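Following the same procedure, the fold was encoded as tokens, giving this record:
***
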Amino acid sequence: MVILFLAIFPFCLFCVCVYSSNTFSLSTGNIIGSGIFISPKGVLEHSGSVGLALIVWVLGGCIAALGSLCYAELGVTIPKSGGDYSYVTEIFGGLVGFLLLWSAVLIMYPTTLAVIALTFSNYVLQPVFPDCVPPYMATRLLSTVCLLFLTWVNCSSVRLATRIQDVFTVGKLAALGLIIVVGLVQICKGNYEGLTPQVAFEFSRTPSVGQVALAFLQASFAFSGWNFLNYVTEEVVEPRQNLPRAIYISIPLVTFVYTLTNIAYFSAMSPEELLSSNAVAVTFGEKLLGMFSVIMPISVALSTFGGINGYLFTSSRLCFSGAREGHLPSLLAMIHFKNCTPIPALLCCCTATIVILCIGETHNLINYVSFINYLSYGVTIAGLLYYRWKKPKLYRPIKVNLLVPVTYLMFWALLLGFSLYSEPVVCGVGLVIMLTGVPVYFLGVYWKSKPKCICDFIGGCPLQSCKYMFVLIIAGSDFSPKYFGFDLRFTVYHCAL
């Protein structure tokens, strides 16, 4: 009982902290999603041993922390919502920014949302189909219903969306807390043979550098979301204080939780059992929780539900920022007059995700998304160094040591280089999709003398029937309504469509 209390108490404390801070809950809630319930299998498969897999998880958290510190400097130096896209556009110009926006809107965020939604439906349906994989159509239908519901929530109220994020962040930590507590009990009973150095570093096969790089890509999917506060910088109260504070708390906490969760998995399952499992947490629950094993898929479903909500909240702001800069149709820069929510951008994100749901499989998408993610991170952090050289006298409320971005970029270059060597098709397709944005940029953005019919279409004339809709466009004015901890600065823009 003492061991259980010592294990549960820190999580209760963390849940209280989460509930009291929107920035912390948004950061932690976006990181902890489906990844920790999917990626352990991929990390172990590519690393080849339990010991190296655990090292990959710890180093993955350290790399995410370095990247977060760089983004904190960018977030307060260029205080615009939109994250990578806004920073790269400001530093390198429209073309590079548009290419990041193009790959993110077209593939990166819809695919990530699709993976999380599929994980949600798989874990919800697992108890209904205990002896087989849930049917294809059932998982897609449930994923779509979940996406539509949360899109409606985000369209209806910022307050309700952030409240859901708070509640389900607590649920995520509770789910992982259950896994960790049960794993600690197993270790206290002496079931830790697989974690001893002699056994943990027994390689099923000797991994190449390229395979280790792919293991990092798998782990990076679980850590993705560490930069999402930068997508809503304009909506965060006192970002100069809250951005670094959220980073200092959330990244070490998530790394600690992920590492302990994997230790718990390995205390109950052999590497062979984990690699053969389609739902790692369900297999873990079936082995250790007996008649209470149904708790595990429910807990994972709650965790992924909150992850979908967080991704919708932040990815819609990227579409919004792109439209505000003129890189996407101006319709996406409109928000509801009363609810202050970017409804067109949310509907765009939801639609793109549903399309990906119909054509993709969960595990095949992770390396693909992670490669594009890391490519975007590296370009953005390289922009930080260039911006320091370009504007050395610019006031920076946060200024990280030069060693931080340099270390990150060295790791980034090695990771992407070896990943491209090991999976040339998967990574190459990501590069090709990003480069297809070049002609789109010159035709849709750079070409200013387009025919009026094309300009009208891009501007949103297909929605003429909504002629009484009033919208707001974020412009940093003095009008500052506050919604549950977020400071939203809007200027009224009456648009009779």
Remarks:
- The chain has one domain: 2-450.
- The longest helix spans residues 94-125.
- The chain is about 70% helix and 5% strand.
